[in-house]
Design a protein that fits this description.
The protein is of the alpha/beta class and about 140 residues long. It has six helices and four strands, in the order αβαβαβαβαα. The protein has a single domain, classed as 3-Layer(aba) Sandwich (Dna Topoisomerase Vi A Subunit, Chain: A, domain 2), CATH 3.40.1360.10. Strands 2-1-3-4 form a four-stranded parallel beta sheet. The protein is elongated and about 50 Å long. The mean pLDDT is about 90.
């Protein structure tokens, strides 16, 4: 059991590091709310993080902001619940229409790794801490 947890922790940490690298290169990360953005900041993800839901922006405003700043690619990292999946789908459609590439690789991999245990990006930092504790206690 501890080997599986250790492997999962390594995969999640590596993916977060890759996300941080992409964000630092200038690719903005789109999340649902301010707490999601704060969780990514705690995980050392620097760069431009754009909130869509709890930040009083509708999808058209978000796409307009992305176009105005000249971004040609964004990373979509919505929550893993039904609503997050719907927002991802709708935002992806709007971005495609604006000819902006949507990178959903991080969302897909994270969802596969932690989707049953975690419903939102906001809890990612705490999830990683708890995972490391479980590894240390085994």
């Amino acid at each position: 059991m501890s080997e599986a947890l250790r492997r999962k922790a390594e995969q999640v940490s590596q993916l977060i590091q890759e996300l941080a690298n992409e964000a630092e290169k200038g690719v903005p990360v789109i999340v649902e709310g301010k707490k999601d953005a704060a969780a990514l900041r705690k995980l050392a993800v620097k760069g431009h993080i754009i909130c869509v839901k709890n930040c009083r922006k509708n999808l058209a405003d978000v796409v307009y902001e992305i176009e105005e700043k000249g971004y040609r690619e964004v990373i979509l990292l919505m929550d893993f619940d039904r609503r997050g999946k719907e927002w991802t789908k709708r935002l992806n459609e709007h971005l495609e229409h604006a000819k902006i590439k949507s990178n959903m690789r991080f969302w897909r991999i994270l969802h596969g790794l932690v989707g049953r245990e975690l419903k939102d990006v906001e809890g990612l930092h705490t999830y990683i801490i708890n995972l490391q504790r479980r590894i240390g206690n085994s």
